[in-house]
Amino acid sequence: MDIRHVSVQGGRLPVRVREGEPTALVFLHYWGGSHRTFAPVIDRLASGSTVVTYDHRGWGASRDLPGPYGIERLADDALDVVRSLGLSRYVLVGHSMGGKVAQLAASRRPEGLAGLVLVAPAPPRPAVDAQAADALAHAYDSRATVGDALQHVLTHRLLPADLREQVLTDSLAAGDDARLAWPRHGITADITAAAGAIDIPVQVLAGRHDRVDPPASLEAELLPVIPHARMTVIEDTGHLSPLEAPDALAAQIDRFTNAHS
User: Fold this and answer.
1) Which of 69, 175, 222, 256 has the fewest CB atoms found within 10 Å of its own CB?
2) CB–CB of 168/81 below 8 Å?
3) Which CATH number applies to 2-259?
4) Beta strands of 36-146 (E only): which ranges?
5) What residue segments make up the domains of the chain, in order of their start?
6) Can you give the pTM of this predicted structure?
């Protein structure tokens, strides 16, 4: 993939682009992820769409970008990427935190946005209380805590050694302010009013064994809020379906893209 540097508030954001069909897929990773999180899915896509991936502000290759690092600024970044690349028609694919960012971006009704694919998305209504959010803030304190989260919270199946190492590395690749912005502010933000303004097709992909954003929670807290949302449950996966079930995820994204190109 080609690397381009897009102007965003406060600096330049490294963006990876693979040119293809006119309808582009813009991938927004989860809290602790990176542009690499969706690589197994992208490798399996059959649609030939243009693909765009990047590390969120404050993470990985974008670590040096200044804050704030809240979901509003991350939504700004996503739309700045779209505009800078001149994407005339695109689908946002947001995973977990990236799914909440995608909801905020879509609520602004930007030109050219054809649909949303929300993968295990954080719902618009806060799904955790302040105490749980504070505990979450320590999930990425060290390799040991990340490993514990991988084993007991994030996955249903054991990841291969290379992907496990990738998650460990990516989860520790943020500055403190960026790392804490999600548990301290983003996950508890109520964006119900904004999500209710989304007026495009929305496909929700939930993991059958997801302990973070389980299907029942999304059915109760997300589907009633977003008017055009439909949910499909992906079997035999937990929260990290881009790494655990890339074949199933790629097939669903291809189906959605083909229907809304």
Assistant:
1) 175
2) no
3) 3.40.50.1820
4) 49-54, 90-95, 113-119
5) 2-259
6) 0.97
